[in-house]
């Protein structure tokens, strides 16, 4: 799996805005390749607009406005990096897909090559009564591009349902209340082959 970069430290405010605009436009035009971006493109566009507005205000050298611009820039960079994890997962080893999303390619970090480690310490905590939600958490791994959480009714022979997350936490909703489910998770790294955790069980309230 290829790593990608936005080179945010080398970009001026204007260049970063142009990068974000390029990524938003290209991914919107490639909806077949990127059907469910995480975060959604609406989140990216909102962060871009907020940063653009703050940069305009900061042009008058107001100290508070300059601090807000810095904050909004950091928020935009965070959204771009999270979105980059999603694109990297979709792309696998195909650098052309990364480029189609508007990101740049950087040399792969060889320290995370090879089979991903088995995900550890998966925890499932049911949400409030009647919510049909379970909160999942696993130990974070620095080499993970994404986390794939899977679930199904315990004791069934159904295929596992999957949900991707850019973080080591995840909320599964729409579950049947007062039913017991089993859950498992895998890191998705440079090597996209899964290595699932031991399955754990929890009742849904």
From TrEMBL:
It comes from the Bacteria. InterPro entries: FN3_dom (IPR003961), FN3_sf (IPR036116), Ig-like_fold (IPR013783). This is Fibronectin type-III domain-containing protein.
């Amino acid at each position: 799996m290829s790593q990608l970069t936005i080179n945010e430290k080398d970009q001026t405010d204007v260049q970063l805005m142009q990068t974000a605009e390029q990524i938003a436009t290209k991914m919107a035009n490639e909806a077949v390749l990127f059907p469910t971006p995480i975060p959604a493109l609406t989140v990216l566009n909102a962060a871009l607009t907020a940063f653009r507005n703050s940069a305009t205000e900061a042009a008058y050298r107001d100290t508070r406005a300059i601090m807000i611009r810095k904050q909004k820039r950091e928020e935009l960079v965070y959204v771009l990096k999270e979105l980059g994890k999603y694109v990297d997962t979709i792309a696998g080893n195909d650098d052309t897909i990364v480029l189609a999303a508007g990101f740049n390619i950087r040399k792969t970090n060889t320290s995370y090559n090879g089979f991903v480690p088995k995900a550890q310490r998966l925890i499932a905590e049911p949400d409030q009564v009647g919510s049909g939600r379970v909160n999942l958490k696993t130990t974070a791994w620095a080499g993970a591009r994404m986390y794939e959480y899977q679930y199904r009714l315990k004791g069934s022979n159904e295929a596992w349902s999957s949900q991707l997350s850019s973080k080591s936490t995840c909320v599964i909703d729409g579950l049947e209340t007062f039913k017991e489910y089993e859950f498992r998770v895998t890191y998705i790294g440079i090597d996209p082959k899964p290595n699932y955790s031991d399955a754990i069980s929890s009742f849904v309230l």
